[in-house]
From TrEMBL:
Cofactor(s) required, per the database record: Mg(2+)
Domain RmlD-like substrate binding: 1-288
The family this protein is said to belong to: Belongs to the dTDP-4-dehydrorhamnose reductase family.
Signal peptide annotation: none
Pathway: Carbohydrate biosynthesis; dTDP-L-rhamnose biosynthesis
GO MF, one example: dTDP-4-dehydrorhamnose reductase activity
Group of enzyme by EC: oxidoreductase
Protein name stated in the entry: dTDP-4-dehydrorhamnose reductase
Superkingdom as given in the UniProt entry: Bacteria
Role noted for this protein: Catalyzes the reduction of dTDP-6-deoxy-L-lyxo-4-hexulose to yield dTDP-L-rhamnose.
The reaction(s) this protein catalyses: dTDP-beta-L-rhamnose + NADP(+) = dTDP-4-dehydro-beta-L-rhamnose + NADPH + H(+)
Enzyme nomenclature, EC number: 1.1.1.133
Length: 289
């Protein structure tokens, strides 16, 4: 199996690269070689690599900055995603596209299922939602995987921010009224691989569509921070105590959903694969750092 992955230094791209082995070639290409805003660079990459499947985790992911850079966010997350999907479709190649829990408004009581109404609260979520629709419209062999709260050893994420800030401070104020599921990037990469294998094993199967793929369980950002510090402390790493605050106490340019828990039943039953608990990723991440 040969997989073309967009982006080279992203959290998920790097973890996919780590899964390459004999019989599984994983080619990660980023800017300037592959630029989501340059159709020619995508076509050239597909022609050169001749992949069995294309995976698209590259994205504009700066949630707050997107509020003032709407065009840049849509150029990558909406138009760029469409371009990757349509270039793949031209060669009859399936695409696995990565999306986000931030497509939801967050006012549902329970976990969101794939058929629930969307309603992004910010520009980033809106651009990702537009990307999902475009990908599904232009490539009949498209899988859209919505994941959430990604953390891992590579790149920037909430876990690394917490460890960094804890070096200088004893108490961190963290919002406790946004509910979701931290998901470890290497587990996301393994999940993507399971999807690729299924798609190639059953080319005519009934798999195209949207799926929710997050770790087991749920927490809040404050709960995640507490768990990070508990595990870090026990390993002799940086630690701090967490003061639970509300979203109103922590003003940001972009509004985040209060609830972005995702139901993963459809993903698990279709692809016969489940992700480990969000907690179990923390120790693995600290060990890898
Ligand atoms: N991070 C998170 O918490 C979550 C992420 N997601 C989604 O998961 C996917 C992976 O996220 P993650 O790995 O964290 O993202 P990162 O922010 O770690 O990486 C994004 C990558 O996209 C690349 N990129 C940006 N613009 C372009 C472009 N025009 N052409 C080519 N590459 C580009 C970046 O390159 P460069 O390094 O050069 O900037 C970077 O390598 C994304 O689609 C994201 O929307 C979903 C839920 C949560
Ligand atoms: C750093 C920090 C953040 N927060 C809050 C702000 C926010 O509500 C929440 C998370 O902050 P961050 O900016 O790290 O996370 P954010 O950029 O919102 O993360 C999102 O990224 C995109 C790409 C996604 O797709 C989402 O799934 C999600 O992971 O924690 C605190 O309360 N205290 C703090 O010290
Ligand atoms: Mg952020």
């Amino acid at each position: 199996m040969r997989i073309l992955v967009t982006g080279r230094d992203g959290q998920v791209s790097r973890c996919l690269a780590d899964l390459a082995d004999e019989g599984r070639e994983i080619v990660c290409l980023g800017r300037p070689d592959l630029d989501l805003t340059e159709r020619a660079s995508i076509e050239a990459a597909i022609a050169a690599v001749r992949p069995d499947v294309v995976v698209n985790p590259a994205a504009y992911t700066a949630v707050d900055k997107a509020e003032s850079e709407r065009e840049a966010a849509f150029a990558v997350n909406a138009t760029g995603a469409e371009t990757v999907a349509s270039a793949a479709a031209t060669s009859g190649i399936p695409i696995v596209h990565i999306s986000t829990d931030y497509v939801f408004a967050g006012d549902k009581d329970g976990p969101y299922v794939e058929t629930d109404e969307t309603g992004p609260t910010g520009v980033y979520g809106a651009s990702k939602l537009d990307g999902e629709k475009r990908v599904l419209a232009v490539n009949p062999k498209a899988v859209v995987l919505r994941t959430a709260w990604v953390y891992g050893p590579h790149g920037n994420n909430f876990l690394k921010t917490m460890l960094r800030v804890a070096k200088d401070r004893d108490v961190l104020r963290v919002v406790a009224d946004q509910h979701g599921t931290p998901t470890y990037a290497p587990d996301i990469a393994a999940g993507i691989l399971a999807v690729c294998e299924h798609v190639l094993a059953q080319p005519e199967g009934d798999w195209p569509g949207i799926y929710h793929m997050v770790a087991e369980g749920e927490t809040t950002w404050a709960g995640f921070a507490e768990a990070i510090f508990e595990r870090s402390r026990s390993r002799g790493g940086p630690t701090a105590s967490v003061e639970a605050i509300t979203t109103a106490d922590y003003p940001t340019p972009a509004r985040r959903p209060a609830n972005s828990r995702l139901d993963t039943q459809k993903f698990q039953s279709t692809f016969r694969h489940g992700l480990p608990s969000w907690r179990s990723g923390i120790d693995r991440c600290l060990a890898a750092l």
